[in-house]
# Entry
Amino acid sequence: MGLEQVQGLKCTQCGKEHTLRETQYVCTSCGANTEVVYDYALIKQRISRASLAQDRNFSVWRYAPFYPLAGLEMIPPQQIGWTPLYPAPRLGAAIGLSRLYVKDDGRNPSASFKDRASGVALAHARENGAPLICGASTGNAASSLACLAGAIGYRTIIFVPQTAPPAKIAQIMTFGAEIVMVRGTYDQAFDLCLAASAKYGWYNRNTGYNPFTREGKKSCAFEICEQLGWQVPDWVAVSVGDGNIISGLWKGFRDLLAAGLIDRLPKMLAAQSTLSSAVADAVRRGGKLEPVRATTVADSISVDIPRDGAMAVRAVTESGGAAITVDDAVILESIKTVARGVGVFGEPAGVTGYAGVEILAKAGVIKADETVVAVVTGNGLKDVASAAKVAGTPTVIDPELAAVDRLFGGKSA
# Structure
């Protein structure tokens, strides 16, 4: 395959262009995030709707010409991507939408969207001969990296805040990663990971620092379009914390347009908790990002300083989309709503995108006949305690038929 399709990295702030030899991470001039630039004419020669229709590799790797990798020899063995895209007529009808879809990314190997990023970053680290890979996470990126790296015995060091959910910590440790638990916030764990990787020469997977994570996350946009028969949705909604998922999706749609596989772009909906709202606040004030003190129950999007926030704002504004905040109580209720409406069990951050759709649909911002995709980014089993808050409690009875009769009034149905 080779790297001929990769032209280099371009700073997302000052526009400085870099070769892959000059930097693998941020801009050497201003320190801002970079973005991979491609030769789309060459990509067009390597991939098409027709070639994809014949491809039996139903994973993120079916889109290999769109990645900054020399080949697929170093990819992890698990099946990443090609997650289900479900029509959700019952869920949509309840909020006045006739064409609502839910994409269940909790079906990835580690049960979250983050496997898309970790797959590409891990392959890139191995291609570059890195002895180990490290990252900071509130849980999902860490468990993703641990899962994919553990299968090939690749050393992984993870920095997490002490408040990370126990289920995610157990998952990370089960896969064999080395956990450094930081007495502080995610942002403090992020900064400590950066400092350690710079000092020891570790390969750093951090969201909003490593541009190749965005390249993995964009694969979800490819799948959405292909699964809809190359009909671009009007809206794509996703939860936002650091901003890397929405910026990755937006990059994917732009890549498809540049390669001639689609003819228009969707509007992007960034959904955040009111208790972690830096990106939505920035959109409202015209683009200026300012830190917040994040305390949301949706731990996967609980971020004080969004590390890819500028690109998240760009995704919303360039697409003509919207950014919205949702109360934590509504986020928790959406776990139950999505589960009962379309049979997808999402963690709090996983269903926040849908919660944003519900608000905008009821407000008339999203029109009844528009095609909408809500991406559920993580499985509810990652945070059962949150689901338990809204699921209700079971009825307890004695093991007697009479007790059943008393409960249901002797009715057979």
Observations:
- DSSP finds 16 helices and 13 strands in the chain.
- The CA atoms of residues 238 and 353 lie 4 Å apart.
